[in-house]
């Protein structure tokens, strides 16, 4: 086994100051799924610096690997699998992969369809005769988010605070009217995925874990991937999830989140190596036909991106056909960077990357009691409320919507602030005025404006 370890550290101490440490380690083991090459040292160091600066600010803990044409050319670990015990990431460590679960589940379903076990145009009444409009909803509607079944995230019992089996979720959904007639609209629905997961269990007369294991995980050798059926039961080698805390550069635990309430669509855990096996099989080894890559995964262009987040975890699976590049990024930190995988792919290909990503200049600064950003705002992104306050420790913090805890904003050398949760650069042009928060990647789709109330 070859191991490369490195450390990033920041220590700025004083009244209310920061103490941050982030370790990283790159490992190559006998279990790796291909030959291992490497990027030129300077190029790999650029990726290390890019990711390492966010690890220093407790915005990223996890593993990143890059595979080009069947060779792992970059692999590095950042932060901790468990920060309070100082445990570094290891290849066997498992991460919750949130909505990347959908790509895996969709592929398993595609394999079952190809085998004749399941048919896309079959009404779900065949399996769930008592479900409302079951004769009008097909399996295809479930997978394309056109079923009209409610999105569980918007339901009082669907926020992940309650542990529910797929059978219990389907029973609760069956009491609700459809949001629209099947096929009339497209609207993202984790409820539809729960129904699909339940149908798989009914067809096979087995729990979802066994269905996916037989259809996909065993054939591909994905030994560290599975469905988390009960979040209250410990999973061996599952890393600890975090999020940026109320002090710049510090982590905290996220809220409890029962991923089993998203069966198949957000309930899986995996490792970088297992997801690499999966991605190679799908895009290089014709695990499913081109038609099913397009219909089941929506992979019909040069770039395929599957990504997801759930409290404590963010997962990115990226494939680019033009240079046969795979980027896997698994993080046990609930800070959400848009365009993260594309930026890493750009650095791995020695392509230009938006300059605001490259050098973040945080400073240790006490916030005055009358700082002009303190106040209540309306957020243009979703229309909710945002509350900015000064903490007792002298930090500027923001609370969104009905959240019950604030997150620190990191002061930057140019007078702006970094919003760690969303990798946003926030600046108030006029004292007491609106605050513009734009993604560090420069993607205008994620720019938000906080307008004072």
How would you explain this protein's 3D organization?
This protein has a domain of 78 residues. 23% of the residues lie in helices and 24% in strands. It has 10 helices and 21 strands. The strands form 5 sheets. It has a 9-stranded antiparallel β-sheet with strand order 16-15-14-13-21-20-19-18-17, with no helix packed on it. Helix 2 packs across helix 8 and helix 4 packs across helix 5.
Characteristics:
453 residues, alpha+beta, 10 helices, 21 strands, 5-stranded antiparallel β-sheet
Broad shape: globular
Strand content range = 15-25%
Strand order of the largest sheet: 16-15-14-13-21-20-19-18-17
- Sheet/helix structural class: alpha+beta
| Arithmetic mean of pLDDT | 89
Tally of contiguous helical segments = 10
Terminal CA distance = 58 Å
Count of strand segments: 21
Helix content: 10-25%
């Amino acid at each position: 086994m070859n191991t490369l370890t490195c450390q990033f550290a920041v220590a700025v101490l004083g009244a209310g100051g920061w103490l941050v440490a982030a370790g990283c380690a790159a490992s190559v083991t006998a279990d790796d799924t291909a030959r291992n090459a490497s990027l030129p040292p300077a190029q790999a160091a650029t990726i290390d610096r890019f990711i390492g600066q966010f690890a220093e600010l407790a915005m990223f803990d996890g593993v990143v690997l890059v595979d080009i044409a069947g060779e792992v050319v970059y692999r590095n670990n950042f932060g901790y699998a468990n920060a309070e015990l100082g445990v570094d990431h290891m290849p066997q460590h498992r991460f919750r992969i949130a909505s990347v679960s959908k790509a895996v589940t969709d592929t398993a379903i595609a394999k079952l369809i190809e085998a004749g076990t399941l048919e896309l145009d079959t009404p779900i009444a065949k399996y769930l005769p008592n479900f409302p409009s079951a004769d009008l909803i097909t399996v295809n509607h479930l997978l394309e988010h056109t079923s009209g079944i409610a999105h569980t995230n918007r339901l009082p019992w669907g926020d992940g605070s309650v542990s529910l089996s797929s059978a219990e979720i389907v029973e609760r959904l069956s009491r609700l009217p459809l949001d629209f007639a099947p096929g009339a609209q497209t609207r993202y629905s984790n409820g539809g995925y729960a129904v699909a997961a339940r149908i798989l269990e009914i067809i096979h007369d087995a729990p979802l874990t066994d269905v996916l294991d037989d259809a996909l995980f065993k054939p591909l050798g994905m030994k560290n991937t599975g469905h988390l059926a009960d979040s209250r039961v410990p999973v061996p080698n599952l890393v600890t999830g975090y999020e940026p805390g109320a002090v710049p550069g510090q982590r905290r635990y996220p809220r409890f989140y029962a991923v089993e309430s998203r069966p198949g669509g957000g309930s899986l855990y995996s490792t970088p190596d297992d997801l690499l096996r999966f991605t190679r099989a799908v895009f290089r080894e014709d695990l499913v036909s081109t038609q099913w890559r397009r219909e089941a995964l929506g992979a019909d262009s040069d770039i395929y991106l599957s990504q997801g987040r759930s409290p404590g975890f963010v997962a990115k699976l990226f494939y680019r056909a033009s240079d046969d590049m795979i980027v896997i990024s698994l993080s046990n930190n609930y800070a959400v960077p848009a365009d993260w995988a594309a930026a890493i792919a750009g650095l791995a290909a020695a392509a230009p990357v938006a300059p605001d990503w490259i050098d973040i200049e945080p400073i240790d600064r006490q916030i005055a009691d009358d700082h002009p950003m303190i106040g209540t705002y309306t957020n243009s992104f979703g229309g909710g409320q945002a509350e900015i306050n000064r903490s007792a420790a002298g930090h500027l913090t923001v609370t969104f919507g009905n959240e019950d805890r604030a997150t620190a904003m990191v002061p930057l050398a140019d007078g702006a602030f970094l919003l760690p949760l969303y990798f946003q650069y926030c600046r108030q042009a006029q004292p007491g005025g609106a605050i513009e928060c734009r993604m560090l990647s420069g993607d205008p789709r994620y720019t938000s404006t906080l307008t004072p109330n």
